[in-house]
Amino acid sequence: MAAIELEGLTKDYGEVLANDDVTFSVERGEIFGYLGPNGAGKTTTIRTLLGLLSPTDGSARLLGHDIADEGELIEAKRRLGYLPDSPAFDETATGREVLELHASIKGDERSDELLELFDPPLDRLVRDYSRGNVRKLGLVTTFMHEPELVILDEPTGGLDPLMQHRFAEFLRDERERGVTVFFSSHILGEVRRLCDRVGIIRNGRLVTVEPVESLLDRSGKVVRLRAADPIPRDTLEIDGVHDLEATLDRGADSSRESARDDSKSTFTECTFTFTGDVNALLERLREYPLLDLSIEEAPLEDVFMRFYGGEVDGEESTAAGRQGTPTEVTDDV
Ligand SMILES: Nc1ncnc2c1ncn2[C@@H]1O[C@H](COP(=O)(O)OP(=O)(O)OP(=O)(O)O)[C@@H](O)[C@H]1O
């Protein structure tokens, strides 16, 4: 039995079809990332799963319980932890009082350990908490009753890099203990680091569900090379080379056009995406002494761009964009 099962889940707000026939499962013990840019429909799926919104159509099960049945939903919720994107704690309570309330409702098996890790200021009023501190308190309340399944809506928003790192390690340990994690995100780096599988949602429709690795494999490697001697441009006319960018070496009398037509044109530096056999590529390059060669996984941004055609969250795509892409490209080979 899967931890989460969605079957044709649909939520129509009237003006917006926020979830359109969404079907997928999250297996027990996996970390599943639910990805999509702002407004794609992630929160709608999560809120519907938790019974906070009623679906227009379709069905869902949490830990085997049908969410349409109130009694079953209560039973499922007892065994799960939920961190909303903006946790609404009582602003007039201190962090400690919030935890006490939570303990009285759901139980407390491990708040001491969690407080050591996430360390929200317990004696301060929630009203005076920063966004990051609200999130830290939320992480404690989400995990303190030892849930089997956790659903986290953009969990690292507001956390500083140290805390994000700690959270990532913690989540991996939770997976080792058999906890199932479903979290939404548009932070591609964290998805890549943490998730076993991802589902990508676009305009309310699920566009893919697959292991992160296969998503990255399909998108190929980014190859950058710098050679000691000129390499003829036709050397890289092999299967699997895409988006080749190189600065062509040209004779004094060669024009841009003639360089394009001349298969004897050479280059010493280039960058390209490669989806073929790396050994075949290396064999091809064997006779050219290389000063530098890097073969890296394609940035997840590139994968995303294929699904979104430019709709990737602006801040994120800039922050994690390709590093070292040549700025002096003068020609496409
Ligand atoms: N209560 C509502 N009434 C009408 N439309 C809504 C409502 N809630 C969300 N929407 C719309 O539904 C779409 C999906 O919103 P949702 O919040 O599920 O997206 P999201 O992927 O979680 O976005 P974000 O990353 O910004 O949180 C958006 O177009 C949003 O404006």
Automatic annotation (TrEMBL):
Coiled-coil ranges per UniProt: none
Q: Name one Pfam family in it.
A: ABC_tran
**Which domain of life does this protein belong to?**
Archaea
Concerning SUPFAM superfamilies, the annotation shows:
P-loop containing nucleoside triphosphate hydrolases (SSF52540)
PROSITE patterns, per this entry? ABC_TRANSPORTER_2
Q: Recorded GO terms, molecular function?
A: ATP binding; ATP hydrolysis activity
Sorted keywords for this record are:
ATP-binding, Nucleotide-binding, Transport
Domain named ABC transporter: residues: 4-228
State where composition is biased (Polar residues).
324-333
- Tell me the protein family, please: Belongs to the ABC transporter superfamily.
| Name this polypeptide is given | ABC transporter-like protein
